[in-house]
Amino acid sequence: MKHILITTIATMELVGGAAKQKEFDASNKIEGHDLNIFYTDKTAKASDISMHKDSETDEVFTPLFNGKNLQGWVTVGPADAFIVRDSAIFSTGAGPYPSWLRSEQEYENFVLRFEYKTEGWYEGGVLLHAPLDGPGSKLGLKLHLRHEQKAYGLRSPGGIYDAAAPRSIANLPSGQWNYCEIKCDWPDLRVTLNDELIHDISMDTEAAFKHRLRRGFIGIQNIGCRASFRNIQIRKLPNREQIWQPLFQSGMAGMLEKGHSDWHMEEEVLTGQGKDGVAVTKAEFSSPFELQVWVKTIVNGNGGVLFNGGHGRLEVQCFNAPDSTNPTGSFYNIAPAKRLLSRDQEWFLLQIFNRGSTAEVLVNGESVSHARDLKPPHRGSIGFQHHTPGGSIQYRAARIRAIE
Predict the structure, then answer these.
(1) d(CA 304, CA 310)
(2) Domain total for the chain?
(3) What stretches in the chain show pLDDT beneath 50?
């Protein structure tokens, strides 16, 4: 798709004493080409008015931003971190990290188009496949945006943050509008900035991408800087992710209780309280598989996820004490986690890859431990442990799928 700049200002007419831009007919053509036209506000400069030519005339894009208010978006963090200014979403820089503006809907595969303009010194970004909790740039993807045209490797302007450096530095100086298109169609990720291809990635073969979440929210990140975003449009593409088997959809009817804990389930959140105990799935699962579960502990809370037989088998520890022997993500008494990436009273994501004789744990999107030479059986139930007498622990939206 070609990015075409119109060099003359749109015809204006006076309606009730106010200037109103005449709407272009959607069938306008330039040199015989169909156009998607992005409208600008009445104060826009000639250089700010842009058109985008589709290579496929049957493409249908849905606006994500109406140019008037934040309908269709949800502010996460301070309410004044994002406002509408000059028909654009404006990141004010207000509030502490983390704060972001997310779409109401989740998306898997899509083409996303938008324009952005940084104001002064800026860095931030656009989040893709971001979850409700946890670091969106680690669990999903972040297109890193900056005000300057300087390479910083994986953190360059236009980089996929801490995952892939851009092929080139294509952003314009602060104060000028940039046009970006992101096509995410697993396993392919293509990013074009100002008509320059800066990423063409096969995510299934790249270590930094292959374990990222493949579905989530689209978001605009606020890390204390100012920028404007407008003409945000999306076209959904077919979903391709392998179907997951949820473990909590049947409630406690799908679980067995062992030990002395009090367990209850509500809206796929499993809560354990009281004394030690474990809730175990009635179903059994064979390796190789990937297990995902969100976990939240109280202060100094302790628990774990058990597999290959449940209680007494392999345990992935949940204990957010920095100086502990087996902090969160450790294979208990087998392979301690090399760093702690989670905190009490905050939801964090555990991803467990069980391949039979070997296994790996990711916490909030980063690998923290590996276990090798694991003995059979490589099959069994999945257990969720409570191990803080008088306290509680929560597990949310556990799901499992077979892997190669």
Answers:
(1) 11
(2) 3
(3) 1-53, 55-57
